[in-house]
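FAQ: What does a ligand-bound record look like?

Like this one, built around S-adenosyl-L-homocysteine:
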Amino acid sequence: MIKAKKSLGQNFLIDKNILEKIINVTQIEKKNILEIGPGTGNLTNYILKKNPKKVIVIEKDKILAEKLEQNFRDEIIVINKDILEIDETSLLKEKFTVFGNLPYNISTEILSKWIVNLKDSFWFDHLILMFQKEVADRIISKFNTSTYGRLSILTNWKLKIDKICDIKPDSFSPKPKVESSLLLLSPKNKSFTIKDPKNLEKVTRIFFSHRRKMLKKPFNELFNGDQKILEKLKIDLSLRPQNLDYETYYQLTSEYENLRS
Ligand code: SAH
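The answer part, i.e. the structure of the complex:
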């Protein structure tokens, strides 16, 4: 019996219906699969039944990684590392389909890292990821809602988001305290041109540092009160950060980049 480590967010998925559902979200047959945090290999087992081309798994826990090596031998490649320290683009020349029941404490960090580091082409064709429901709700949210913010703006820039289902704590062992949601994230064919995604992070960070305050202060901080930008983007500075749609934040980032170039 393996004792779950709380520090590594270990909640193992044991619900067979959910495992079936996850592997049927997209095609696995003949695909290169990257699984993040495979744990005891519950999902890995289901993935292998679908005849993937190649399966690489990244598991930070040394003991679990060794167990996976023993249990799956030649069927998978186990990398015993922290996903945050991996350069996914260096693993394989072909695209991955990515699965991950992510540790809740680093899920937003991983997703942000992947988006910010995207180059001209995508290294994945789909991401099938489990999040804490509250985080998934933030990713999905649209403007004019209280959950709208940096994460939805960043994710929507490059990815199309589909919610597959919510998952109850009972589906895991040990049971987490909160509900989870499964999301399918797929590359968008076209996205607004931003030179450096770090600027999108910066612009949204400054705008959302005070959710309840008017746009005036962050706007002045970034654009020195530039009237032309306000008119061009039709922004009313008495609104709040959550009232501007995705597109406006991408345009603001582009204006910010123009000012610095
Ligand atoms: N996918 C499995 C396990 C989910 S629990 C299942 O559904 O049953 C989350 C897993 O991620 C654990 O195995 C944990 O050890 C691993 N993990 C935690 N932090 C990690 C990190 N930074 N990099 C890679 N794996 C990590």
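Follow-up question: can I read anything off the structure? Yes, for example: The mean pLDDT is 95.
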